[in-house]
Amino acid sequence: MASGFNRQEKRNTLDRISNLPLEVTAEILKHLPIKEAVGTSRLSRHWRYQWTAIQELKFNDYTAIGQGQTITNTNLTNLVNSVLLLHHHPVTRFEVYTIKAPSSDVDRCLSIFAPDLEHCHIEGPYQNIKFVHTPKLKKACLSFNSEDMNNILADLWQFRNSPFLKEINVHAWQCPPRLVPPEHFWKKTDAVFQHLQKVNFVQFREGQNELQLIEFFLHKATILQTINITRMQPAHFNEWKKLLQFPRTSPEARINII
């Protein structure tokens, strides 16, 4: 008798979970790590495909491993590919944080739901980024090798498909070589950065390439408002003076050293 009562109580609990309003289900899924959100598909038929409506996908090295497992790039790549293969709704934010070796598989994931992508944040070493069609992209955070100008140019080349890009975060990282963009890229950058308002440099190292990149943004971004620089070391007066002397197209543009 007690056993039957327990089964009925368990069934009632499952029914309450299954009959939650869709907006409540969506709110719950939004606050779960992506791996746990996908796992809710096992709860009931009601939950089976609910996770595919999540619009913000966030991944890191730890979301892809189980207890006692070692962090590998393969784990992360497999998780990202599996999620995006089954995900059939628009993605407005895509984030990947990794310290492992680069994987072109992860990079290619960006193009799957790119037409709806608004925020993209990829922190860590990677080989190639492919923004095939990202007309709604407003904010991008990318890692680059400040000692390799080809690396920087390859990243900027990707934004030719993002005409409404408003904010770029530049994060210094030791990245492998990128594919070099066509030479005529520099002739088209006026259109690429016509809406750019804010640029953030993280772990600024005072390299010549970084200074050239700042000068480039000041020259090409016609409505630029702010360039924020977070430095690895305290700023010296001569370097600060040099930055202030860079010519700028936007009269509102200012440089803040943090």
Automatic annotation (TrEMBL):
PROSITE patterns: FBOX
Domain of life of the organism encoding this protein: Eukaryota
Domain F-box: 14-65
Family matches, as PANTHER family: F-BOX PROTEIN-LIKE, OS07G0242900 PROTEIN
Protein name according to UniProt: F-box domain-containing protein
Organism: Thalictrum thalictroides
